[in-house]
Structure formats: structure tokens, C-alpha cells
Design a protein that fits this description.
Layout: H1 40-69, H2 76-83, H3 97-116, H4 126-143, H5 145-155, H6 164-178, H7 187-206, H8 222-233, H9 238-245
Helix pairs in contact: 1-2, 1-3, 1-5, 4-5, 4-6, 4-7, 4-8, 5-7, 7-8, 8-9
């Protein structure tokens, strides 16, 4: 009787090969396939970009409206209509009208004021620092009238000396008084007078110059004349005040308006 044939294992070349698909790890972005479908990471990036664009549209609309009417004169519906965004979408970005207003103040005024305060690193005379700050502020309003109008809309209130430009102005005036550079009979009245002079110059640049009967005519040296005038309010004689206000401006790196608004 012939011996039984041993069964042989299937040949590696003849047996079917099972290929395993490895799933991505949790949280790992899907890769683009051969059909060109985008990955989950790319989709997320596009969504973030759209959200950022919508937020900027809301902020630009609020800036233009509030610079013209102030915060109290603007409703959320006005902002969403101007931005062409659904009313309910507003709350995906800001919890209230006051919140978007504060964000605008932080972006447009607080950052500017902090950068402008770096003038103190170049000039030690309180008079020259205040004059240069006033000149820069008025000139900035000339270059960006929407910014200037927003500053005007937000600084005529009782909190203006606690934030933004007013906070630094109060400190600089007190520094000059302590150094006996300025003459002060009443601090509150003096700060109000100086602040109002700066805001008046800014108003002349961004509003009065738009009128046909503008008495100022928006002269090129208006920032210097206003600055010299406020120095006389602080006790300096006109000749010295004008000499300080006419000096070349120290160079300071001021932030660019992130909303890109330049004119009303």
C-alpha cells in the first residue's frame, strides 16, 4: 500500500493576500485621497477663516456706525444689517453691543495710546511729550477720519481719564506738575482744559474740514498750533510753547488700524 501524501501548506504565491486598512488615530486629520477630497484639517482652516472674516465685518460695521452715532445710538440690528450678517450670528462673536464697543476701544484706542506713550523713551521734557502726543493724535485723525471720529465718540464722557489716551494724558500732566514744568491751580480743571484742546483739534481735522464754511481750512500746521496753545494752558509762554510744538516729531511706531478703515 503506497504511503499517504503529506498535505503541503498553500504556496505564498498562490494564496490570496489580505490587505488591512489602517484607520487614522483619533484626532488625526484625514489625508487628501486620490479624488482630491480635502482633509478635515483643511476644512477646519477654511471654517476658521470664514469666522474671522465675519467677525471683522461686524467690527467694521460697528466702527463706522459708532463713530458717527456713538454706542448708545447704534442697535445690534443696525450692525448686522450693515455687515450683511444674520442677527443671530452676532452672538456667536460678541455677547452684547457693549462687548463689541469695548473690543473696538481696545483695538483702536488702547493699543494706539500704549504705543504713543513710548515717546517717553525718547523725550524727557513733559512739555515736549504732551505736545508730540497731541500732534500725533491730530495727525492720525487727519489720515484716518473714521478712527478720529471714533475717538471723539468715546472720549467725551466721565470715564475718559481712566482709559486710553486720557489715562496717559492725566499721568503726563501730573508728571509735569511734580517737576514744576507746568503751572497748576486746579488739577481737574487743567486736565479737562488740555484734553478738550486736543479733542477740539481732532474735531477740526475730522469734522469741521468737511464743511464748506470751515473757519480753520484745515491748515497743515493745525496740530502744531493746537499743541502750542495747550502748552500755554499748562503755563508756558507762547514763544517757548511754539518752539517746542514746532520741533521735528520723534519717530514712534504706531499700530495700523486693523480694520482698514481710512475715511468716513
Amino acid at each position: 500500500m503506497p504511503p499517504a501524501k503529506k498535505s503541503m501548506p498553500p504556496s505564498a504565491t498562490n494564496s490570496p493576500v489580505k490587505r488591512m486598512r489602517i484607520a487614522p488615530e483619533p484626532g488625526q486629520a484625514k489625508q487628501t485621497d486620490g479624488a482630491g477630497r480635502e482633509s478635515a484639517g483643511a476644512a477646519t482652516t477654511r471654517q476658521d477663516k470664514r469666522r474671522q472674516e465675519t467677525r471683522l465685518k461686524l467690527m467694521r460695521a460697528a466702527l463706522h456706525l459708532m463713530s458717527a452715532k456713538g454706542m448708545d445710538g447704534v442697535a445690534i440690528q443696525d450692525i448686522t444689517n450693515a455687515a450683511d450678517v444674520g442677527f443671530g450670528s452676532f452672538y456667536n462673536y460678541f455677547p452684547s453691543k457693549e462687548a463689541i464697543f469695548q473690543t473696538l476701544k481696545d483695538e483702536l484706542i488702547e493699543h494706539y495710546a500704549a504705543a504713543l506713550d513710548k515717546l517717553g523713551e525718547q523725550v524727557t521734557d513733559p512739555a515736549e511729550k504732551i505736545a508730540a502726543s497731541a500732534r500725533y493724535t491730530i495727525r492720525h485723525g487727519r489720515a484716518d477720519s473714521v478712527w478720529g471720529k471714533f475717538v471723539l465718540a468715546t472720549n467725551f464722557n466721565r470715564d475718559s481719564l481712566r482709559t486710553g489716551l486720557g489715562r496717559y494724558l492725566l499721568r503726563d500732566v501730573m508728571t509735569g506738575i511734580e517737576a514744576e514744568r507746568f503751572v497748576c491751580h486746579d488739577l481737574a480743571s487743567l486736565v479737562v482744559a488740555v484734553g478738550s484742546t486736543i479733542l477740539g483739534g481732532l474735531m477740526a481735522e475730522v469734522t469741521m474740514s468737511e464743511q464748506a464754511d470751515d473757519p480753520f481750512g484745515s491748515p497743515d500746521d493745525l496740530p502744531e498750533k493746537v499743541s502750542a496753545t495747550l502748552l500755554t494752558t499748562l503755563g508756558l509762554p507762547w514763544s517757548e510753547a511754539w518752539a517746542i510744538a514746532s520741533r521735528p516729531l520723534p519717530v514712534v511706531d504706531l499700530p495700523v488700524n486693523p480694520l482698514g478703515a481710512r475715511s468716513a
